[in-house]
Amino acid sequence: MHAKLAAWVDEMARLCGPDRVEWLDGSEAEKERLEAQAVASGELIRLDHARLPGCLYHRSAANDVSRTEHLTYVCTRSRDDAGPTNNWMPPEEGYRKAGAIFRGSMKGRVMYVIPFSMGAVGSPFAKIGVQLTDSLYVALSMRIMTRMGRAVLDRLGAAGEFTRCLHGKADLDAERRIIVHFPEDNAIWSVGSGYGGNALLGKKCLALRIASHLARREGWLAEHMLILGVEDPQGRVEYITGAFPSACGKTNLAMLTPPEAYRAKGYKVWTVGDDIAWLRIGPDGRLWAVNPEAGFFGVAPGTDSRSNPNALATLQRDAIFTNTLLADDGTVWWEGGNGPAPRKGLDWRGQPWRPGLLDDDGKPVLGAHPNSRFTAAARQCPCISPRWEDPQGVPISAVLFGGRRERLAPLVCEAFDWNHGVYLGATVASERTAAQVGTIGEVRRDPMAMLPFCGYNMGDYFAHWLEMGRRIPKPPKIFHVNWFRKDAGGKFLWPGFGENFRVLDWILARCRGQGGARETAIGLLPESGALDLAGLELSQGVLERLLEVRREEWVEELAGHKAFFDRFGGRIPAELWRQHEALAQRLGATAAAR
Ligand code: GTP
Ligand code: SPV
Ligand code: MN
Fold this sequence. Notes:
Distance between the termini: 57 Å
Bound molecules: guanosine-5'-triphosphate, sulfopyruvate, manganese (II) ion
Shape: globular
Radius of gyration: 24 Å
Structural class: alpha+beta
Helix content: 25-40%
CATH topology of the largest domain: Phosphoenolpyruvate Carboxykinase, domain 3
Number of strands: 31
CATH architecture of the largest domain: Alpha-Beta Complex
């Protein structure tokens, strides 16, 4: 028995006051028992067994349907170590504030103890956490999203290191909700929310915020990235990672189905991960990536058998659906999903719903919340890579950064070199989505899609990326992509989804030293004819619009880069300022004095 673990569980149980503490072993029998309990209490609803075998439905509180970044804190001793992009409070205050909400909050409930591993159990790169929670929904979701149970405890032995993760629903009151991280103590406390990224502590809290802090100390990278493999007709597979902000297309790109013309030639995409990548320098001098998760927590709306058939196949069994529409026939539905809307059902709030329903202002009432999601095991994905659990990971040829920009950013742009690529990542901006609380559509800087997930000062984070570049003998090439450019009428210019494969094809050609490129002020863009568009009908002039670099817009953007860097005081590495000045020079503008 692990004495420190036992003592910690006792101490937390004294704080939270559950009726009982139950250690979970991860067995099938345990799963069935927990599901039956959750169904009996109404926390989960069983879906139609014939059509969705083993699937469950959950509705989170109406005020608790996305990550609450304004209630999320990084508690380092020094405020500067959290940096200007994180909410901060001193560790003592974090423990005190969250502790006051936790105190006695599990009375009448069970506290589940969930030992879990991020990364395959026993992989040299895996990290272990133990989550305590009073939510059966969270316990059952952790079973899908992580490797958990007895095997992890065995691995931990009598004295292994683990992240202490305390989670409680309390009364699910947004006024009494806080998610506090203590990277210097390897601990996370989250109270008052039952929603995904706030409550499944292995995901954003451990695998990104705590892990990014560890990664900097240990010389690796913990990133908000998908990982995919592209197999060519000769059977050779090359791997790509991509960082896009929440709800900006990682799951879709990771599971992409290539266009017919490519499939006919024998091209194929393999999914390694859809949200998080841990990257290290391998013995061969390349960058290698592992997916620390075991499942997908994917956005439902917009997912149908045309846009993402692989996701749809993945969630046909043993999945948990959260905040979708619950149809009267025991199935689920969402806007932009398959088939016509069911004639009757209950919406994500639990209110009666029918197609065409309007609210008091005459606006359509959504059946599913825009951030409604499915939770399903990665191994159920038809295109899961045979190497997805490889303890060493997969070698990376290209790293993509991107965001949702209706103007400015071209479809694809290659960095001149690693440091320029770090600048491209550091200056990513994106329109806000429904995955986090806030004004949808508002453009904000989201460097490397890590704004809400970096567990330390982002100025130091950029320095760490630059330092990694100095240490990787054979670095991947870095690109910026944007699938979301729109025309004057607000329509997407690029068809996206499977057609994005055409861009990946050019990217991989560039990595092999092939593929034509023209130099612009912002980077290397496909030269005329270099993108293979066979079989794709793009209207006259659309490709030119997608690949256009408008000097006056970029000069304006330059000021946005500077304003963002200025927030960090002296903590932005000099190399990024040099990149900034070089960009200004290429644009024929003068960089504003710093
Ligand atoms: P998180 O799970 O929040 O990290 O999101 P994600 O980055 O995995 O995003 P996801 O793939 O789930 O896509 C989010 C939304 O973007 C969905 O509504 C998709 O339909 C839409 N989307 C994804 N790829 C594309 C694309 O290439 N073009 C367009 N126009 N929309 C896309
Ligand atoms: C995201 O918001 O980036 C997600 C969902 O992947 S959550 O688990 O809530 O973070
Ligand atoms: Mn995500």
